[in-house]
Structures are given as structure tokens and as C-alpha cells.
Write a structure and sequence with these properties.
Blueprint: H1 2-18, H2 24-62, E1 65-67, H3 70-78, E2 85-91, H4 100-117, E3 126-132, H5 137-142, E4 150-154, H6 168-171, H7 175-186, H8 199-217, H9 228-243, H10 246-252, E5 258-259, E6 266-267, H11 278-303, H12 308-336
Helix pairs in contact: 4-7, 9-11, 11-12
Family: Belongs to the OST3/OST6 family.
Subcellular location: Endoplasmic reticulum membrane
Signal peptide: 1-41
């Protein structure tokens, strides 16, 4: 009996292993439905992402920068899913806004976007768009944005960080600087291709023609070439242009000035020692030229042998130019290099 009963008990135990409690069936059913729902949700997200990318690629095929209003911004940038980076320029290009800086920045932005669109590395991982204030006022309010132009990078995941806002005031808005910033934020390297500009070539040709014509007309009398005063004036012009920051403007492409959107006040002097406006370089050039003129007058008063009264007047005028404009130049230096302790006449 014992031998025959043992297999029977083993079969019963084996059967119990295949049986589950009755209350576990709803749990299994719920788990199965949850898996199906998650799978369907994932599929829906994939389809939605594919539709968004397809739409963006279609817009990019038409133009390198596509404009967005509030609805498009929330759908393609704020709302998930998203596996692409988006560079957005917030601007105000309407004529009534009178934003000349916006137009200049838009030209550089177009050059950058066109360089990406027509490059061999173009893909669906990076797109360029624009939100104009008059077309997306709600977007500006949502982002608490009160100035334009502003460049922002929206990463594929998460919210933009502080470094995702381009420091336009310090760096400028040249296409090359924007490309470098994008490479730091997205690891996408864009080689900027600028359209051919023949104005420099034409200007150089006209200058060479003018000089050549002048030399030809004066071929019998070329003593003016040895004129020290003429060469000194040319040298001073070059020195004034270089010391005022014209080369920096050419490289960085800063705005001409800055207009406060709240009170409309225009600033011609940048408040940081790391940047400048184009108007600021012009002001510095004039100040340096005035100081130099004062020094020339002082030298003339000291070395000439004319009337004493006339020499005294020249000396006073030269001294006044040096003192006043040097004080003005020193005050600008103090406003940019905060904490500089020295001043003279003008604070």
C-alpha cells in the first residue's frame, strides 16, 4: 500500500504546482491589460514623435528657419516626446518695433541655418526656428522674456539650463560664434559658409584705381610721396581704428547699440569690460583723435617760432583738449571696469 500510494501523492503534489489561488486571476488579468496599455502608449508616443519629426523635416526642406506661433511652440518644443534639439531665435522684426539689432542678428542667423541645411552632415537632430514677438506674444510671456533678440537651445530631454541661453551681449551674434555655442550644447558642428560679398573687392579695386590714377597724373612730380605729414596722418588713422576696437567688431559682430525695451533708453557704452557696442568704438576713436590733436597743438606751441600770444592760445587749446577728452575717456574706462578708483574732472 505504501509503495502504491507514493506515486499518487507525488502526482497530486505536481498538480498543485500548476494550480494558482483563485484570487490571482484578476491580478494576472490586470497585469496583462497594463502591459497592453503600456505597449500601446509607447507605440502612440513613437508615432507622435515620427509625425513631429516628419513635419519639421518638411518645413526645413522649404526654408532653413521656420516661424512658430504659440501653438506650434508648445507642440513641437515644449510638449514631449522629442528626440531633437531646437534652436529658437526670439526676435521682433516688425517695422513698428524699430529693432535694428534684430535685423542684423537675423541675417547672421540665416547664414548659420543655411550652412546647416546645405551641409553634408544635415540630419533630423537639429532644427532652427524663430518666434516673433508679434506672432507669439504668449510665448514671450510664458518664458518671462523681455528683450530681443535672444537665442535659446531646447535640448531633446529636460528643460533648458542657463548655458542654453546664448550670451549675446558678451559674445555678439556672429554666425561663427553661434555655431561654436551650438557645438558646445549639442555636439553638432556646423561649418559656416557665407555668401560671396564683392563689396570689399570692388572697394579695393576702386582704391587701387584711384591711387594709380593719382600717381599717373602726378608722374612728373612725386615729391608728395615723401611727405612725412601725410604718412603720419595715414598711420594715425590706422592706429585709431585698431585701438578703438574696430577689429573686435569685425570678428564678434556686436550690435550698434542697445535699446532698453522697458523705458526705450538707448545705451551706447556696454557695461561690461568683456564686450562693447559698435557705437562705443566710434566714441573711443573720436576721443583718441581729440587727445592726439591736443598733443599736436601742444607740440606746435612749444616748437614753433611765431608770435608768443598766438603760441599761448594754441597751448591753452591743446591743453584743454587733452584734459577734457582724457577725463571723458577715463570716465568710460571706470564705467566698464567697475571698482577702478581713479578719475579726473569727469566721474
Amino acid at each position: 500500500m505504501g509503495a502504491r500510494g507514493a506515486p499518487s501523492r507525488r502526482r497530486q503534489a505536481g498538480r498543485r504546482l500548476w494550480y494558482l489561488p483563485t484570487g490571482s486571476f484578476p491580478f494576472l488579468l490586470l497585469l496583462l491589460l497594463l502591459c497592453i496599455q503600456l505597449g500601446g502608449g509607447q507605440k502612440k508616443k513613437e508615432n507622435l514623435l515620427a509625425e513631429k519629426v516628419e513635419q519639421l523635416m518638411e518645413w526645413s526642406s522649404r526654408r532653413s528657419i521656420f516661424r512658430m506661433n504659440g501653438d506650434k511652440f508648445r507642440k513641437f518644443i515644449k510638449a514631449p516626446p522629442r528626440n531633437y534639439s531646437m534652436i529658437v531665435m526670439f526676435t521682433a522684426l516688425q517695422p513698428q518695433r524699430q529693432c535694428s539689432v534684430c535685423r542684423q542678428a537675423n541675417e547672421e542667423y540665416q547664414i548659420l541655418a543655411n550652412s546647416w541645411r546645405y551641409s553634408s552632415a544635415f540630419c533630423n537632430k537639429l532644427f532652427f526656428s524663430m518666434v516673433d514677438y508679434d506672432e507669439g506674444t504668449d510665448v514671450f510671456q510664458q518664458l518671462n522674456m523681455n528683450s530681443a533678440p535672444t537665442f535659446m537651445h531646447f535640448p531633446p530631454k529636460g528643460r533648458p539650463k542657463r548655458a542654453d541661453t546664448f550670451d549675446l551681449q558678451r559674445i555678439g551674434f556672429a554666425a561663427e560664434q553661434l555655431a561654436k555655442w551650438i557645438a558646445d550644447r549639442t555636439d553638432v558642428h556646423i561649418r559656416v559658409f557665407r555668401p560671396p560679398n564683392y563689396s570689399g573687392t570692388i572697394a579695393l579695386a576702386l582704391l587701387v584705381s584711384l591711387v594709380g590714377g593719382l600717381l599717373y597724373l602726378r608722374r612728373n612730380n612725386l615729391e608728395f610721396i615723401y611727405n612725412k605729414t601725410g604718412w603720419a596722418m595715414v598711420s594715425l588713422c590706422i592706429v585709431f581704428a585698431m585701438t578703438s576696437g574696430q577689429m573686435w567688431n569685425h570678428i564678434r559682430g556686436p550690435p550698434y547699440a542697445h535699446k532698453n525695451p522697458h523705458n526705450g533708453q538707448v545705451s551706447y557704452i556696454h557695461g561690461s569690460s568683456q564686450a562693447q557696442f559698435v557705437a562705443e568704438s566710434h566714441i573711443i576713436l573720436v576721443l583718441n583723435a581729440a587727445i592726439t590733436m591736443g598733443m599736436v597743438l601742444l607740440n606746435e606751441a612749444a616748437t614753433s617760432k611765431g608770435d608768443v600770444g598766438k603760441r599761448r592760445i594754441i597751448c591753452l587749446v591743446g591743453l584743454g583738449l587733452v584734459v577734457f577728452f582724457f577725463s571723458f575717456l577715463l570716465s568710460i574706462f571706470r564705467s566698464k571696469y567697475h571698482g577702478y578708483p581713479y578719475s579726473f574732472l569727469i566721474k
